[in-house]
Amino acid sequence: MQDLFTMLNTLQRPRILMRAARIGAQDYRRTAHLPRLLGYGTVPRHGTALMKLIELEAELETDRTATDAWL
């Protein structure tokens, strides 16, 4: 199994998505945003939260690449 940093470094995404992620990261607040993404309740530790976010992003990427962009 790869470590988290290796997994993040091997992601290949369109430049515009990476730019949007960098812009969004400037205003990111863990306590405010993470519960909305992972479900309300106790906020998981950093490594666990990152793994869940990677899984969510992988599902979104699969959906993005599998659908027609003009629909």
Short description:
This protein is mainly α and 71 residues long. The protein has helices spanning 4-9, 15-26, 30-38, 46-66.
Which secondary structure elements does this structure contain, and how are they paired or packed?
Elements: H1 4-9, H2 15-26, H3 30-38, H4 46-66
Account of the 3D structure:
By secondary structure, the protein is mainly alpha-helical. It has one domain. Helix content is 68%, strand content 0%. The mean pLDDT is 85.
Could you give a short account of the major beta sheet? none
Q: How many helical elements? A: 4
Name the beta content range: under 5%
Which structural class do the helices and strands define? mainly alpha
As a percent range, the share of helical residues equals 55-70%
From the structure above, extract its key features:
single chain, 71 residues, mainly alpha, 68% helix
